[in-house]
Amino acid sequence: MNWMKMARMLEAIDGESPTRLVTFLSQELDEMDNVLEKQYFLQILDKDSLKANSMALTKAKKWLAKAFDVHSDEIEAMYMAHDDLGDAIYYFDVSSETTGTLLGFSLNVLKTHLEMSFSKIESDEFRTFQWLMESMASLERKWFIRYLLRTPRNGINTGIITKAIARTYGYKVSEVKKHLITSSVSDVILYYEMGEVPKATLSHGSYVAPMLAKDVPMNKWPKNKIVDYKYDGNRYQIHKEDESVIIFNRKGKVVTQQFPDVVEVVSEYPNGIYDGEIYPINEDGSPAEHKKMGTRVHSKNVQEAMEKVEVKWVMFDCLKIEEQTIIQLPYSERLASFGELPDQALRMKKGEDVLAFYNRAINDGFEGIIVKDADLPYQAGSRSAGWAKYKPPRIELDVVVLKAKYGQGAKANVFATFEIFVKNERGFYSVGWVGTGFSDNDLYQLTQTLRKNVVDYTDGVYEFTPRVVLEVTADLVTQDANANTGLRFPRCKRIRDDKFVNDINTLDDVEAMR
Fold first, then answer.
1. pLDDT exceeds 70 at position 127
2. Which domains does the chain have, with CATH numbers?
3. Between 20 and 30 A from 147 (CA), which of 50, 138, 208, 311?
4. Cα torsion for 184, 189, 191, 195, to the nearest 10°?
Protein backbone atom coordinates (compact mmCIF):
# COMPACT_ATOMS: atom_id res chain seq x y z
CA MET A 1 0.00 0.00 0.00
CA ASN A 2 1.18 3.54 -0.76
CA TRP A 3 -0.13 6.86 0.47
CA MET A 4 -2.42 7.40 -2.52
CA LYS A 5 -4.15 4.06 -1.92
CA MET A 6 -4.41 4.75 1.81
CA ALA A 7 -5.85 8.23 1.17
CA ARG A 8 -8.48 6.70 -1.13
CA MET A 9 -9.30 4.12 1.53
CA LEU A 10 -9.66 6.86 4.18
CA GLU A 11 -11.98 8.79 1.87
CA ALA A 12 -14.07 5.70 1.16
CA ILE A 13 -14.63 4.84 4.82
CA ASP A 14 -15.06 8.41 6.09
CA GLY A 15 -18.29 8.59 8.11
CA GLU A 16 -18.74 4.83 8.44
CA SER A 17 -19.94 3.27 11.71
CA PRO A 18 -17.39 1.84 14.17
CA THR A 19 -18.41 -1.72 13.22
CA ARG A 20 -17.81 -1.02 9.52
CA LEU A 21 -14.50 0.69 10.27
CA VAL A 22 -13.26 -2.43 12.10
CA THR A 23 -14.28 -4.59 9.13
CA PHE A 24 -12.57 -2.34 6.56
CA LEU A 25 -9.31 -2.09 8.51
CA SER A 26 -9.22 -5.84 9.13
CA GLN A 27 -9.71 -6.49 5.40
CA GLU A 28 -6.87 -4.11 4.53
CA LEU A 29 -4.55 -5.84 6.99
CA ASP A 30 -5.47 -9.26 5.55
CA GLU A 31 -4.54 -8.09 2.05
CA MET A 32 -1.09 -6.81 3.04
CA ASP A 33 1.81 -9.23 2.66
CA ASN A 34 4.54 -6.98 4.02
CA VAL A 35 4.84 -6.78 7.82
CA LEU A 36 6.50 -3.35 7.71
CA GLU A 37 3.62 -2.08 5.60
CA LYS A 38 1.15 -3.24 8.26
CA GLN A 39 3.17 -1.55 10.98
CA TYR A 40 3.37 1.83 9.23
CA PHE A 41 -0.30 1.60 8.24
CA LEU A 42 -1.40 1.17 11.86
CA GLN A 43 1.06 3.71 13.26
CA ILE A 44 -0.32 6.40 10.95
CA LEU A 45 -3.94 5.49 11.73
CA ASP A 46 -3.26 5.56 15.46
CA LYS A 47 -2.39 9.27 15.47
CA ASP A 48 -1.48 9.16 19.17
CA SER A 49 1.41 6.81 18.42
CA LEU A 50 2.98 9.34 16.03
CA LYS A 51 5.75 11.49 17.46
CA ALA A 52 4.62 15.02 18.22
CA ASN A 53 5.36 17.86 15.81
CA SER A 54 5.00 21.61 16.32
CA MET A 55 2.44 22.11 13.54
CA ALA A 56 -0.78 23.79 14.65
CA LEU A 57 -3.70 25.17 12.69
CA THR A 58 -2.52 28.78 12.46
CA LYS A 59 0.98 27.76 11.44
CA ALA A 60 -0.35 25.27 8.87
CA LYS A 61 -2.38 28.02 7.19
CA LYS A 62 0.72 30.22 6.89
CA TRP A 63 2.84 27.40 5.52
CA LEU A 64 0.17 26.45 2.98
CA ALA A 65 -0.22 30.04 1.83
CA LYS A 66 3.50 30.33 1.22
CA ALA A 67 3.75 26.86 -0.36
CA PHE A 68 1.02 27.75 -2.90
CA ASP A 69 2.26 31.35 -3.22
CA VAL A 70 -1.13 32.87 -2.38
CA HIS A 71 -2.32 35.44 0.15
CA SER A 72 -3.16 33.98 3.56
CA ASP A 73 -6.72 35.35 3.22
CA GLU A 74 -7.36 32.87 0.40
CA ILE A 75 -6.45 29.92 2.62
CA GLU A 76 -8.46 31.42 5.49
CA ALA A 77 -11.53 31.89 3.27
CA MET A 78 -11.36 28.26 2.14
CA TYR A 79 -10.96 27.14 5.74
CA MET A 80 -13.96 29.18 6.89
CA ALA A 81 -16.04 27.74 4.06
CA HIS A 82 -15.22 24.10 4.88
CA ASP A 83 -14.43 24.23 8.64
CA ASP A 84 -11.58 21.77 8.06
CA LEU A 85 -8.13 22.58 6.70
CA GLY A 86 -7.83 19.20 4.97
CA ASP A 87 -11.05 19.79 3.04
CA ALA A 88 -10.04 23.41 2.36
CA ILE A 89 -6.75 22.44 0.72
CA TYR A 90 -8.43 19.63 -1.21
CA TYR A 91 -10.89 22.03 -2.87
CA PHE A 92 -8.21 24.70 -3.25
CA ASP A 93 -6.61 22.69 -6.07
CA VAL A 94 -8.85 19.84 -7.19
CA SER A 95 -7.12 19.75 -10.57
CA SER A 96 -4.36 17.59 -9.11
CA GLU A 97 -6.85 14.92 -8.00
CA THR A 98 -5.32 12.19 -10.14
CA THR A 99 -1.94 13.70 -10.97
CA GLY A 100 0.26 13.31 -7.89
CA THR A 101 3.73 13.40 -9.43
CA LEU A 102 5.15 10.60 -7.29
CA LEU A 103 2.17 8.28 -7.77
CA GLY A 104 1.90 7.77 -4.03
CA PHE A 105 4.51 7.93 -1.28
CA SER A 106 5.47 4.80 0.63
CA LEU A 107 3.95 4.77 4.12
CA ASN A 108 7.31 4.86 5.90
CA VAL A 109 8.24 8.04 3.97
CA LEU A 110 4.86 9.52 4.86
CA LYS A 111 5.27 8.71 8.57
CA THR A 112 8.70 10.38 8.57
CA HIS A 113 7.21 13.56 7.14
CA LEU A 114 4.27 13.55 9.57
CA GLU A 115 6.77 13.48 12.45
CA MET A 116 9.00 16.35 11.28
CA SER A 117 9.35 19.18 13.77
CA PHE A 118 8.18 21.95 11.36
CA SER A 119 10.03 24.51 13.45
CA LYS A 120 10.56 27.55 11.19
CA ILE A 121 9.13 28.64 7.87
CA GLU A 122 12.64 29.72 6.77
CA SER A 123 14.08 26.21 6.92
CA ASP A 124 14.76 23.06 4.96
CA GLU A 125 11.65 21.62 6.59
CA PHE A 126 9.48 24.20 4.85
CA ARG A 127 11.08 23.38 1.52
CA THR A 128 10.29 19.71 2.18
CA PHE A 129 6.72 20.68 3.05
CA GLN A 130 6.39 22.70 -0.15
CA TRP A 131 7.75 19.80 -2.18
CA LEU A 132 5.20 17.50 -0.56
CA MET A 133 2.33 19.81 -1.45
CA GLU A 134 3.56 20.04 -5.03
CA SER A 135 4.05 16.29 -5.30
CA MET A 136 0.81 15.05 -3.78
CA ALA A 137 -2.55 14.65 -5.45
CA SER A 138 -5.30 16.73 -3.83
CA LEU A 139 -6.81 13.75 -2.02
CA GLU A 140 -3.40 12.87 -0.58
CA ARG A 141 -3.02 16.48 0.58
CA LYS A 142 -6.39 16.44 2.31
CA TRP A 143 -5.56 13.47 4.50
CA PHE A 144 -1.92 14.47 4.95
CA ILE A 145 -3.01 17.82 6.42
CA ARG A 146 -5.56 16.12 8.67
CA TYR A 147 -2.98 13.70 10.06
CA LEU A 148 -0.32 16.41 10.20
CA LEU A 149 -2.58 18.32 12.61
CA ARG A 150 -3.53 15.05 14.35
CA THR A 151 -7.20 15.77 13.58
CA PRO A 152 -8.26 13.04 11.12
CA ARG A 153 -11.93 13.34 12.17
CA ASN A 154 -12.73 9.92 10.75
CA GLY A 155 -13.71 7.95 13.86
CA ILE A 156 -10.59 5.77 13.80
CA ASN A 157 -9.13 5.58 17.30
CA THR A 158 -7.11 3.18 19.42
CA GLY A 159 -10.23 1.15 20.23
CA ILE A 160 -11.10 0.65 16.55
CA ILE A 161 -7.51 -0.32 15.74
CA THR A 162 -7.41 -2.77 18.65
CA LYS A 163 -10.58 -4.49 17.44
CA ALA A 164 -9.27 -4.64 13.86
CA ILE A 165 -6.03 -6.29 15.05
CA ALA A 166 -8.02 -8.76 17.16
CA ARG A 167 -10.22 -9.73 14.19
CA THR A 168 -7.26 -10.02 11.81
CA TYR A 169 -5.18 -12.29 14.03
CA GLY A 170 -7.93 -14.19 15.80
CA TYR A 171 -7.46 -12.85 19.34
CA LYS A 172 -10.00 -11.59 21.84
CA VAL A 173 -10.09 -7.81 22.10
CA SER A 174 -9.23 -8.09 25.80
CA GLU A 175 -6.10 -10.07 24.91
CA VAL A 176 -4.92 -7.46 22.40
CA LYS A 177 -5.55 -4.70 24.94
CA LYS A 178 -3.45 -6.60 27.44
CA HIS A 179 -0.60 -7.01 24.94
CA LEU A 180 -0.72 -3.32 23.99
CA ILE A 181 -0.10 -2.33 27.61
CA THR A 182 3.47 -3.60 27.50
CA SER A 183 4.18 -3.49 23.73
CA SER A 184 3.70 -0.97 20.94
CA VAL A 185 1.34 -1.62 18.04
CA SER A 186 4.38 -2.37 15.84
CA ASP A 187 5.78 -4.95 18.25
CA VAL A 188 2.38 -6.58 18.75
CA ILE A 189 2.04 -7.02 14.97
CA LEU A 190 5.53 -8.55 14.76
CA TYR A 191 4.77 -11.10 17.47
CA TYR A 192 1.39 -12.00 15.95
CA GLU A 193 2.99 -12.47 12.52
CA MET A 194 5.42 -14.95 14.12
CA GLY A 195 2.51 -16.79 15.73
CA GLU A 196 3.66 -15.68 19.19
CA VAL A 197 2.34 -13.32 21.85
CA PRO A 198 4.33 -10.39 23.27
CA LYS A 199 6.08 -10.97 26.57
CA ALA A 200 4.41 -9.00 29.35
CA THR A 201 7.55 -6.99 30.10
CA LEU A 202 7.83 -3.23 30.44
CA SER A 203 10.98 -1.50 29.22
CA HIS A 204 12.95 1.37 30.73
CA GLY A 205 12.10 4.55 28.85
CA SER A 206 8.91 3.22 27.23
CA TYR A 207 6.09 5.36 28.62
CA VAL A 208 2.89 3.67 29.77
CA ALA A 209 -0.38 5.63 29.62
CA PRO A 210 -1.55 6.19 33.23
CA MET A 211 -4.59 4.66 34.88
CA LEU A 212 -7.05 7.42 35.79
CA ALA A 213 -9.61 7.87 38.55
CA LYS A 214 -13.24 8.92 38.13
CA ASP A 215 -16.10 10.18 40.28
CA VAL A 216 -17.99 7.14 41.59
CA PRO A 217 -21.00 7.07 43.98
CA MET A 218 -20.21 5.63 47.42
CA ASN A 219 -22.56 2.71 46.91
CA LYS A 220 -20.37 1.59 44.00
CA TRP A 221 -17.05 1.81 45.78
CA PRO A 222 -15.12 -1.49 45.79
CA LYS A 223 -15.69 -3.66 48.86
CA ASN A 224 -12.06 -4.73 49.07
CA LYS A 225 -10.44 -1.31 48.99
CA ILE A 226 -7.20 0.50 49.65
CA VAL A 227 -7.59 4.23 50.29
CA ASP A 228 -4.94 6.93 49.60
CA TYR A 229 -4.80 10.67 50.10
CA LYS A 230 -5.55 12.58 46.88
CA TYR A 231 -2.69 14.99 46.16
CA ASP A 232 -3.11 18.34 44.43
CA GLY A 233 -0.12 17.99 42.14
CA ASN A 234 0.77 16.88 38.63
CA ARG A 235 0.88 13.23 37.61
CA TYR A 236 4.29 11.81 36.67
CA GLN A 237 5.74 8.43 35.78
CA ILE A 238 9.36 7.84 36.76
CA HIS A 239 11.61 5.20 35.22
CA LYS A 240 14.78 4.21 37.10
CA GLU A 241 17.45 1.89 35.70
CA ASP A 242 20.88 1.99 37.31
CA GLU A 243 22.16 5.57 36.86
CA SER A 244 19.38 6.55 34.46
CA VAL A 245 16.27 8.32 35.77
CA ILE A 246 13.57 9.50 33.32
CA ILE A 247 10.56 11.56 34.40
CA PHE A 248 7.52 11.58 32.08
CA ASN A 249 4.60 13.97 32.49
CA ARG A 250 1.04 12.78 32.01
CA LYS A 251 1.24 13.37 28.26
CA GLY A 252 4.31 11.14 27.96
CA LYS A 253 6.76 14.02 27.46
CA VAL A 254 10.18 13.71 29.13
CA VAL A 255 10.54 16.49 31.74
CA THR A 256 13.47 15.13 33.76
CA GLN A 257 15.42 18.39 33.46
CA GLN A 258 12.72 20.29 35.39
CA PHE A 259 13.08 18.20 38.54
CA PRO A 260 16.71 17.53 39.49
CA ASP A 261 15.62 17.43 43.16
CA VAL A 262 13.19 14.57 42.41
CA VAL A 263 15.84 12.76 40.33
CA GLU A 264 18.11 12.85 43.37
CA VAL A 265 15.39 11.27 45.54
CA VAL A 266 14.52 8.51 43.06
CA SER A 267 18.20 7.70 42.41
CA GLU A 268 18.13 5.82 45.71
CA TYR A 269 15.27 3.54 44.60
CA PRO A 270 15.66 0.07 43.13
CA ASN A 271 15.23 -0.14 39.35
CA GLY A 272 11.60 0.17 38.39
CA ILE A 273 8.74 2.16 36.89
CA TYR A 274 6.91 4.26 39.46
CA ASP A 275 3.61 6.14 39.26
CA GLY A 276 2.80 9.15 41.41
CA GLU A 277 2.55 12.92 41.72
CA ILE A 278 4.83 15.87 42.27
CA TYR A 279 3.17 18.62 44.30
CA PRO A 280 4.33 21.99 45.70
CA ILE A 281 4.92 22.35 49.42
CA ASN A 282 5.28 25.21 51.90
CA GLU A 283 8.30 25.72 54.15
CA ASP A 284 6.68 23.58 56.85
CA GLY A 285 6.12 20.70 54.41
CA SER A 286 2.37 21.22 54.09
CA PRO A 287 0.86 21.22 50.60
CA ALA A 288 0.97 24.59 48.83
CA GLU A 289 -1.55 25.82 46.27
CA HIS A 290 -1.24 24.04 42.96
CA LYS A 291 -0.62 27.25 40.99
CA LYS A 292 2.97 27.21 42.24
CA MET A 293 3.64 24.14 40.09
CA GLY A 294 3.59 26.43 37.07
CA THR A 295 6.92 27.90 38.15
CA ARG A 296 8.55 24.46 38.15
CA VAL A 297 6.91 23.33 34.93
CA HIS A 298 7.48 26.43 32.77
CA SER A 299 10.61 28.14 34.14
CA LYS A 300 13.69 28.08 31.91
CA ASN A 301 15.91 28.74 34.92
CA VAL A 302 15.56 25.44 36.76
CA GLN A 303 17.82 26.40 39.67
CA GLU A 304 15.88 29.60 40.31
CA ALA A 305 12.56 27.71 40.08
CA MET A 306 13.81 25.17 42.65
CA GLU A 307 14.66 28.00 45.03
CA LYS A 308 11.24 29.62 44.58
CA VAL A 309 9.12 26.49 44.78
CA GLU A 310 9.94 23.37 46.76
CA VAL A 311 8.18 20.21 45.61
CA LYS A 312 7.66 16.71 46.93
CA TRP A 313 7.37 13.43 45.03
CA VAL A 314 4.81 10.93 46.32
CA MET A 315 4.45 7.39 44.97
CA PHE A 316 1.14 5.53 44.81
CA ASP A 317 1.77 2.73 42.33
CA CYS A 318 4.48 0.70 40.66
CA LEU A 319 4.39 -1.02 37.26
CA LYS A 320 7.76 -2.74 37.36
CA ILE A 321 10.27 -3.38 40.12
CA GLU A 322 13.74 -4.73 39.48
CA GLU A 323 13.26 -7.24 36.65
CA GLN A 324 9.64 -8.06 37.48
CA THR A 325 6.79 -6.43 35.51
CA ILE A 326 3.86 -6.28 37.94
CA ILE A 327 1.33 -4.22 35.97
CA GLN A 328 -1.04 -7.22 35.64
CA LEU A 329 -1.04 -8.01 39.37
CA PRO A 330 -3.90 -6.88 41.66
CA TYR A 331 -3.22 -3.57 43.38
CA SER A 332 -2.77 -5.26 46.75
CA GLU A 333 0.04 -7.42 45.32
CA ARG A 334 1.66 -4.49 43.54
CA LEU A 335 1.57 -2.57 46.81
CA ALA A 336 3.24 -5.46 48.61
CA SER A 337 6.12 -5.18 46.10
CA PHE A 338 6.79 -1.44 46.50
CA GLY A 339 5.01 -0.36 49.70
CA GLU A 340 8.16 -0.45 51.84
CA LEU A 341 9.93 2.13 49.66
CA PRO A 342 10.06 5.75 50.90
CA ASP A 343 7.81 8.60 49.69
CA GLN A 344 4.59 6.60 49.79
CA ALA A 345 1.15 8.15 49.53
CA LEU A 346 -0.56 8.32 52.92
CA ARG A 347 -2.88 5.30 53.16
CA MET A 348 -5.75 4.39 55.39
CA LYS A 349 -4.89 1.84 58.05
CA LYS A 350 -6.74 -1.44 58.14
CA GLY A 351 -9.99 -1.06 60.06
CA GLU A 352 -9.94 2.76 59.95
CA ASP A 353 -13.19 4.54 59.05
CA VAL A 354 -13.02 5.84 55.46
CA LEU A 355 -14.90 9.09 56.15
CA ALA A 356 -12.72 9.84 59.15
CA PHE A 357 -9.69 9.27 56.88
CA TYR A 358 -11.24 11.61 54.32
CA ASN A 359 -11.72 14.34 56.96
CA ARG A 360 -8.08 13.93 58.01
CA ALA A 361 -6.96 14.38 54.38
CA ILE A 362 -8.97 17.62 54.08
CA ASN A 363 -7.68 18.92 57.42
CA ASP A 364 -4.11 18.19 56.32
CA GLY A 365 -4.65 20.43 53.27
CA PHE A 366 -5.06 17.73 50.61
CA GLU A 367 -7.76 17.41 47.93
CA GLY A 368 -9.57 14.38 49.28
CA ILE A 369 -9.10 10.62 48.88
CA ILE A 370 -8.83 7.96 46.18
CA VAL A 371 -10.62 4.68 46.87
CA LYS A 372 -8.90 1.84 44.97
CA ASP A 373 -10.01 -1.68 44.20
CA ALA A 374 -7.42 -3.92 45.89
CA ASP A 375 -8.16 -6.76 43.42
CA LEU A 376 -7.75 -4.73 40.22
CA PRO A 377 -4.72 -4.84 37.88
CA TYR A 378 -3.33 -1.56 36.55
CA GLN A 379 -5.60 -0.47 33.68
CA ALA A 380 -3.21 1.61 31.60
CA GLY A 381 -4.81 4.48 29.71
CA SER A 382 -8.27 3.89 31.19
CA ARG A 383 -10.45 6.03 33.44
CA SER A 384 -11.66 3.31 35.76
CA ALA A 385 -14.31 3.02 38.44
CA GLY A 386 -11.68 0.90 40.20
CA TRP A 387 -10.09 4.20 41.26
CA ALA A 388 -12.84 6.36 42.80
CA LYS A 389 -12.21 10.05 43.57
CA TYR A 390 -13.89 11.56 46.63
CA LYS A 391 -13.50 15.30 47.20
CA PRO A 392 -15.51 18.09 48.88
CA PRO A 393 -18.95 18.46 47.30
CA ARG A 394 -18.26 21.26 44.79
CA ILE A 395 -18.55 21.19 41.00
CA GLU A 396 -15.12 20.53 39.43
CA LEU A 397 -14.62 20.09 35.70
CA ASP A 398 -11.89 19.94 33.10
CA VAL A 399 -12.85 22.21 30.20
CA VAL A 400 -11.28 23.58 27.02
CA VAL A 401 -10.93 27.26 26.10
CA LEU A 402 -12.28 28.08 22.63
CA LYS A 403 -12.92 31.84 22.93
CA ALA A 404 -11.50 34.77 24.90
CA LYS A 405 -11.61 38.56 25.29
CA TYR A 406 -8.89 41.01 26.25
CA GLY A 407 -9.19 42.66 29.67
CA GLN A 408 -9.35 46.33 30.61
CA GLY A 409 -7.01 48.69 32.43
CA ALA A 410 -3.96 46.83 33.74
CA LYS A 411 -5.15 43.69 31.90
CA ALA A 412 -5.68 45.35 28.52
CA ASN A 413 -2.74 43.50 26.99
CA VAL A 414 -3.79 39.98 28.02
CA PHE A 415 -6.81 37.76 27.55
CA ALA A 416 -8.74 38.02 30.81
CA THR A 417 -12.07 36.24 30.29
CA PHE A 418 -12.48 32.88 28.60
CA GLU A 419 -15.43 30.95 27.18
CA ILE A 420 -15.16 27.35 28.34
CA PHE A 421 -16.52 24.21 26.73
CA VAL A 422 -17.07 20.53 27.49
CA LYS A 423 -17.42 17.71 24.94
CA ASN A 424 -20.70 16.57 23.47
CA GLU A 425 -21.74 14.40 20.54
CA ARG A 426 -21.46 17.35 18.11
CA GLY A 427 -18.03 18.42 19.29
CA PHE A 428 -18.02 21.03 22.07
CA TYR A 429 -20.69 22.66 24.26
CA SER A 430 -20.28 26.02 25.99
CA VAL A 431 -20.88 26.11 29.75
CA GLY A 432 -20.17 29.82 30.13
CA TRP A 433 -17.32 32.29 30.68
CA VAL A 434 -14.72 32.37 33.44
CA GLY A 435 -12.60 35.35 34.50
CA THR A 436 -11.62 34.68 38.11
CA GLY A 437 -9.02 32.48 39.74
CA PHE A 438 -6.17 33.53 37.43
CA SER A 439 -2.87 34.98 38.58
CA ASP A 440 -1.11 37.58 36.43
CA ASN A 441 1.32 34.87 35.37
CA ASP A 442 -1.59 32.58 34.41
CA LEU A 443 -3.08 35.27 32.16
CA TYR A 444 0.28 35.97 30.53
CA GLN A 445 0.90 32.26 29.92
CA LEU A 446 -2.61 31.71 28.52
CA THR A 447 -2.32 34.75 26.24
CA GLN A 448 1.03 33.61 24.83
CA THR A 449 -0.38 30.16 24.10
CA LEU A 450 -3.75 31.23 22.74
CA ARG A 451 -2.32 33.88 20.40
CA LYS A 452 -0.60 31.09 18.47
CA ASN A 453 -3.91 29.30 17.97
CA VAL A 454 -6.28 32.07 16.84
CA VAL A 455 -8.67 30.94 14.09
CA ASP A 456 -11.24 33.77 14.06
CA TYR A 457 -12.09 37.21 15.44
CA THR A 458 -15.52 38.86 15.73
CA ASP A 459 -16.52 41.95 17.72
CA GLY A 460 -13.76 41.70 20.29
CA VAL A 461 -14.01 37.92 20.73
CA TYR A 462 -11.11 35.72 19.61
CA GLU A 463 -11.69 32.08 18.71
CA PHE A 464 -9.06 29.35 19.04
CA THR A 465 -8.27 25.80 18.11
CA PRO A 466 -8.90 23.45 21.07
CA ARG A 467 -5.53 23.39 22.85
CA VAL A 468 -5.80 24.90 26.35
CA VAL A 469 -7.40 22.84 29.13
CA LEU A 470 -8.46 24.40 32.44
CA GLU A 471 -9.71 22.88 35.65
CA VAL A 472 -12.59 24.99 36.94
CA THR A 473 -14.81 24.92 40.00
CA ALA A 474 -18.36 26.23 40.33
CA ASP A 475 -21.14 26.50 42.91
CA LEU A 476 -23.60 24.45 40.89
CA VAL A 477 -24.85 23.50 37.43
CA THR A 478 -27.63 25.72 36.09
CA GLN A 479 -30.17 25.54 33.26
CA ASP A 480 -31.84 28.60 31.73
CA ALA A 481 -35.33 28.99 30.26
CA ASN A 482 -34.06 27.69 26.91
CA ALA A 483 -32.65 24.52 28.55
CA ASN A 484 -29.05 25.68 28.07
CA THR A 485 -26.73 24.13 30.66
CA GLY A 486 -24.12 26.29 32.38
CA LEU A 487 -22.10 26.86 35.55
CA ARG A 488 -22.86 29.25 38.42
CA PHE A 489 -19.85 31.35 39.52
CA PRO A 490 -17.13 29.34 37.70
CA ARG A 491 -13.58 29.95 38.87
CA CYS A 492 -10.30 28.69 37.41
CA LYS A 493 -8.53 26.31 39.73
CA ARG A 494 -5.52 25.62 37.50
CA ILE A 495 -4.22 25.40 33.95
CA ARG A 496 -4.02 21.71 33.02
CA ASP A 497 -0.90 21.52 30.82
CA ASP A 498 -0.76 17.85 31.75
CA LYS A 499 -4.10 16.99 30.12
CA PHE A 500 -5.16 16.43 26.53
CA VAL A 501 -8.36 17.96 25.16
CA ASN A 502 -9.69 14.39 24.85
CA ASP A 503 -9.53 14.19 28.67
CA ILE A 504 -12.02 16.99 29.36
CA ASN A 505 -15.46 16.35 30.82
CA THR A 506 -18.56 15.73 28.75
CA LEU A 507 -21.95 17.42 28.76
CA ASP A 508 -23.34 14.19 30.25
CA ASP A 509 -20.88 14.61 33.16
CA VAL A 510 -22.08 18.16 33.75
CA GLU A 511 -25.78 17.30 33.64
CA ALA A 512 -25.21 14.42 36.05
CA MET A 513 -24.00 17.02 38.59
CA ARG A 514 -27.29 18.97 38.60
1. yes
2. 3-148 (1.10.3260.10), 212-390 (3.30.470.30), 395-512 (2.40.50.140)
3. 208
4. 160
